[in-house]
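Thought: the user asked what OmpA family protein looks like in 3D. I have the sequence; next I should run the structure tool and report back without guessing.
Action: structure_tool
Action Input:
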Amino acid sequence: MMSRLIPLFLACALGAAFGPALAQTAAPQPGQVAVAGTVPDEATKAAVLARLREIYGADRVVDQIDIGQVATPANWNGYVQKLLTPDLKQISRGQLKIDGTTVSLRGEVANEAQRQKIASDVATSLNPTYTVNNGLRVSSADQGILDSTLANRTVEFESGKATLTPAGRAILDEMLAAMKKLKERKIEIIGHTDNQGLRTTNQGLSQARAEAVKAYLSANGINGELLTASGQGADRPIASNDTAEGRARNRRIEFRIAQ
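Observation:
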């Protein structure tokens, strides 16, 4: 039987817990992080609690961890430590669950960029034997308008260029209508690429494409002072770059409400 990290809960932030059974885990009080479940030894328990107390503060972490005879995957404790990062504090009403080599994240974050970054950082911190289920959702109603309008589609450009295709402009026309509903909200436009080619080239291309989107929106009724454009190159993938499908998903324009 493999050891499991069952959710650690934090009301209005995140939560976490370890072990094979969540049913006995008491609900935390507002502001607390309850960590529960079964780990194989005192050293693992101490390392988990120390890391959580470092992130959240010792007075907020509620220890409900048991010690039991459970087997763990290779270097499991090391991977758990990689998952317990300050990024978890960005998740509200959340849950982290590590069940052997399956990691699940749930809860709310401020914007789509944050949702993608947290999931991407989790995936890249683990080896390929781990599976990551990203159940994070954007809590902002305004961000939801942008995300539902884009609907996981890709704003298309001519290959290797920052020139919008007709299909790309059609999607931006829909985004224009959505942005006009948001009144004076500031919006970040972020370009991304796959990892093919030189890093500096990808960085420049992602920046140029973000700028092209900003220029199109500004020319069609959106106040340019409310828009910022930046390029992330290949640094923030949302899918594997090992497949054509994954690379296509990573070549994208992201819109997020500026915080």
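Thought: the tool returned a structure. Summarizing for the user.
Final Answer: Structure for OmpA family protein predicted. Confidence is low (pLDDT under 50) at residues 1-26. Helices lie at 42-56, 76-83, 112-125, 141-150, 166-180, 199-219, 244-250.
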